[in-house]
């Protein structure tokens, strides 16, 4: 007798179910869970107490900052050169010496200029006398207007020649334009110099400048007066220098999409030298007196961001989900603002494992202090 296919399948299914029932009824076999209804019983999830690590909500000033790399530069720096050509007659500085503004660094031979100056002074005296004589004769109408004009012109010309030579004589002395430190010299007495010959450099190290690039997305938060903190390996691991921004370029580089920013360090340590690289922390924004929690306390789901607050007193508490909006983030902390819930400095929130623990509103909690190695902002 041929059995139909549906009947054969029903027979095999019956045999499989019978065998399964025999196996489950055997001693030592574990019965399957009774389903969601059993989980809600005294031995289910709501009956268990979940140990959690908690921390207090803290109201503090939160600072948003950005760390970039910059280069240190002197407050002022000048390459010293002579304005006129000639032989070097004297060098009056030592390499690495601290000098004052107006100090003579190099003297160039001025013998020819001195001779021309004496000649110009004699001519100036003669034209002065001629002008005085012409003025006296002009008063008595004893001279023509042309002679009087000629005397005035000769006087003005000789006076101008005298001023030019005195100025050239002054330029034979190369002087320091500001207070600073003299660099290495590149000439010796007897060398011939012109306006292209480098003599030395002078750097003003009383203050230091630092230059760095700021991405355009943060540029609107940076302006003159913005605080910066500069750290360099030469300063040690914990040593930092405070400064502030004094210049923000109005142009953004198309290649890097960043803009040049310069800061000023008013009291730099001697170990910080021009040309060094440094890490610069730029303070972008300061939020005063905001509620903060560790970033690990934020639970994000389809409804938004939440923190789990341990409500109640005693060794056992219950979990309450409080909806929050997130604000500024800084160094492992995040600003939170409660939405339709209660959250203040007296609240304790679950600080770690919120995404991996079985937690739901009303769950029983056993709070424990957050481990010291995981605390932030203290």
Q: Mind describing the biggest β-sheet?
A: 6 strands, antiparallel, barrel
DSSP strand tally: 19
> What is the terminal separation in angstroms?
85 Å
Range of helix content: 10-25%
Total number of helices: 4
Helix/strand class: alpha+beta
Strand % is 35-45%
The shape, in one word, is elongated
CATH topology of the largest domain: conserved putative lor/sdh protein from methanococcus maripaludis s2 fold
- The succession of helices and strands, N to C, reads HHEEEEEHHEEEEEEEEEEEEEE
Strand order in the largest sheet: 2-9-12-11-10-13
Mean pLDDT: 83
Low-confidence stretches: 14-45
Second CATH tier, the architecture of the largest domain: Beta Barrel
Describe the structure.
The chain is built from 4 helices and 19 strands. The two termini are 85 Å apart. Helix 3 runs antiparallel to helix 4. It is elongated and about 125 Å long. It is an alpha+beta fold and 378 residues long. A hairpin with a 2-residue loop joins strand 14 and strand 15.
Topology of this protein?
Layout: H1 5-25, H2 36-39, E1 49-56, E2 58-81, E3 86-91, E4 98-99, E5 104-108, H3 111-139, H4 145-170, E6 173-175, E7 180-182, E8 192-193, E9 198-215, E10 227-231, E11 241-248, E12 258-265, E13 277-294, E14 299-301, E15 304-311, E16 317-330, E17 333-338, E18 348-350, E19 364-369
Parallel strand pairs: 1-19
Antiparallel strand pairs: 1-18, 2-9, 2-13, 3-5, 3-8, 4-7, 5-6, 7-9, 9-12, 10-11, 10-13, 11-12, 13-17, 14-15, 15-16, 16-17, 16-19
Helix pairs in contact: 3-4
């Amino acid at each position: 007798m041929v059995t139909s296919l549906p009947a054969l399948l029903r027979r095999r299914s019956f045999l499989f179910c019978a065998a399964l029932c025999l196996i489950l009824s055997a001693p030592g076999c574990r019965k399957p869970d009774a389903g969601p209804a059993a989980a809600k019983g005294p031995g289910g999830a709501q009956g268990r107490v979940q140990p959690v690590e908690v921390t207090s909500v803290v109201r503090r000033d939160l600072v948003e900052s950005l760390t970039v790399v910059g280069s240190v530069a002197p407050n002022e720096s000048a390459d010293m050169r002579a304005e006129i050509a000639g032989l070097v007659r004297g060098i009056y500085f030592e390499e690495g010496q601290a000098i004052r503004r107006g100090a003579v660094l190099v003297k160039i031979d001025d013998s020819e200029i001195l001779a021309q100056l004496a000649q110009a002074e004699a001519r100036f005296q003669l034209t002065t006398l001629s002008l005085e004589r012409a003025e006296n004769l002009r008063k008595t109408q004893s001279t023509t207007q042309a002679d009087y004009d000629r005397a005035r012109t000769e006087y003005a010309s000789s006076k101008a020649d005298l001023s030019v030579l005195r100025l050239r004589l002054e330029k034979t002395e190369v002087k320091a334009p500001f207070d600073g430190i003299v660099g290495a010299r590149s000439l010796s007495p007897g060398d011939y110099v012109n306006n292209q010959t480098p003599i030395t450099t002078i750097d003003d190290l009383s203050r230091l400048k630092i230059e760095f690039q700021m991405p355009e997305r943060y540029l609107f938060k940076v302006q003159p007066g913005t605080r910066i903190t500069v750290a360099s390996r030469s300063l040690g691991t914990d040593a930092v220098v405070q400064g502030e921004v004094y210049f923000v370029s109005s142009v953004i580089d198309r290649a890097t999409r960043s803009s040049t920013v310069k800061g000023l360090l008013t009291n730099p340590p001697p170990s910080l030298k021009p040309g060094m690289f440094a890490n610069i922390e730029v303070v972008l924004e300061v939020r005063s007196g905001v509620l903060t929690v560790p970033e690990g306390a934020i639970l994000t789901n389809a409804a938004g961001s939440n923190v789990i607050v341990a409500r109640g007193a005693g060794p056992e508490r219950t979990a309450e989900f409080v909806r929050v909006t997130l604000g500024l983030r800084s160094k492992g902390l995040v600003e939170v603002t409660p939405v339709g819930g209660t959250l203040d400095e007296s609240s304790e929130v679950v600080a770690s494992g919120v995404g991996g623990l079985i937690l739901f509103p009303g769950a029983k909690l056993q709070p424990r202090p957050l481990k010291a190695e995981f605390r932030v902002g203290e």
